[in-house]
Each structure stands twice: as C-alpha cells, then as structure tokens.
Amino acid sequence: MQVGVIMGSISDWETMQHTCKALDDLEVPYEKEVISAHRTPDEMFAYAKSARERGLKVIIAGAGGAAHLPGMVASQTTLPVIGVPVQSKALDGLDSLLSIVQMPGGVPTATVAIGKAGATNAGILAAQMIGAFDGVVAGNLKNYRKNMQEKVAEMRDELEQK
Ligand SMILES: Nc1c(C(=O)O)ncn1[C@@H]1O[C@H](COP(=O)(O)O)[C@@H](O)[C@H]1O
C-alpha cells in the first residue's frame, strides 16, 4: 500500500470516503483504519513509527474537533502527512482546521479545506506526491485533469441552453 488513510472515528467516514474515492479514481493503492491519538495513543504511535518500513509513502489523517491525530502522527514519522479537517457539529470544523494547520515550526502537516472538498483534495494531493516519482500515477493524474476540463466544457454547453 502506498497511502495510509486514517481517521479518528468511524463518524469521520462520511468525509474520508471522499479521500478513498479520489485514490480509487487515481488507482493509488491505500489502506484505511480508525486510529485516534486520544483514544488509542499506543496504536497511533505504532502505526506512525512503522509506516515507512511498511512501504507507505504518504499518510492522510482525518479528524474533527480537537484534531490532534494528523500532528501527532507527523511527530512520529518523516513521511508527509496530510490533515483533513472534519466538519464538527459545535464549531463547523473551524476547530478541526485550526488544530491541524497551526503546527509548531519543524513538524509540518499539509492541511486541506474542511469537509468533502478537502477530503477529495487530500487524495489528489497524495497522488501528486507519489506522481512526482511514479510515471503511472502521473499519467492517471493527467487523465483526471483532462476529465475535469471536459466536464467544464459540458457545463458551458449546458449554460448556453439556459
Ligand atoms: N480528533 C479526534 C481524535 C484525535 O485527534 O486523536 N480522535 C477522535 N477524534 C474526533 O472526535 C470526533 C468525534 O468522534 P465520535 O463521533 O467517535 O464521538 C471525530 O470527528 C474524531 O475525528
């Protein structure tokens, strides 16, 4: 597996399924797991520490509220970590976003937007990181962009009918 997709709770799946969909579309092999820095700290450390030797290239971590999972995973690996802020009920995901993005200097996490669009972008960004060194994935990304452009062309046709 090239990408590890982890989430703090099964309740994050509604968001994180969009990360998995993007990786499926781009044909990047991934594994998925529920792991929490707060609720399963020992497993979180073991996962992060063993990630590189297990062959992962990128970790995508989604969490909501006090979203410490991406940052804590990043502290235990030198693989790139992409954090997905899950939209929380109480604060609409602003808490998740700030918990993930405001890392101290020296331990970065790449941070995407809150919710579905961010989750999709996390998958694409991971593919782009891998595609920097992998011609097959780079080709899949090129096709993905081409499809997007074709969809915009369809929108233009549709707009003309309005
Ligand atoms: N932010 C974290 C972490 C963590 O950062 O370790 N573990 C769980 N959670 C978050 O708690 C929220 C509510 O979880 P429940 O729905 O299980 O109560 C989820 O969005 C999860 O990501």
UniProtKB/TrEMBL annotation:
Residues reported in the UniProt entry to bind substrate: 9, 12, 39
Catalytic reaction annotation: 5-carboxyamino-1-(5-phospho-D-ribosyl)imidazole + H(+) = 5-amino-1-(5-phospho-D-ribosyl)imidazole-4-carboxylate
Organism annotation: Virgibacillus xinjiangensis
Biochemical pathway: Purine metabolism; IMP biosynthesis via de novo pathway; 5-amino-1-(5-phospho-D-ribosyl)imidazole-4-carboxylate from 5-amino-1-(5-phospho-D-ribosyl)imidazole (N5-CAIR route): step 2/2
GO molecular function per UniProt: 5-(carboxyamino)imidazole ribonucleotide mutase activity; phosphoribosylaminoimidazole carboxylase activity
Enzyme class: isomerase
This protein's name: N5-carboxyaminoimidazole ribonucleotide mutase
Family, per entry: Belongs to the AIR carboxylase family. Class I subfamily.
E.C. code: 5.4.99.18
Keywords, comma-separated and alphabetical: Isomerase, Lyase, Purine biosynthesis
Domain of life: Bacteria
Domain PurE: 1-152
Phylogenetic placement of the source organism: Bacteria, Bacillati, Bacillota, Bacilli, Bacillales
Function: Catalyzes the conversion of N5-carboxyaminoimidazole ribonucleotide (N5-CAIR) to 4-carboxy-5-aminoimidazole ribonucleotide (CAIR).
One Pfam family cited in the UniProt record for this chain: AIRC
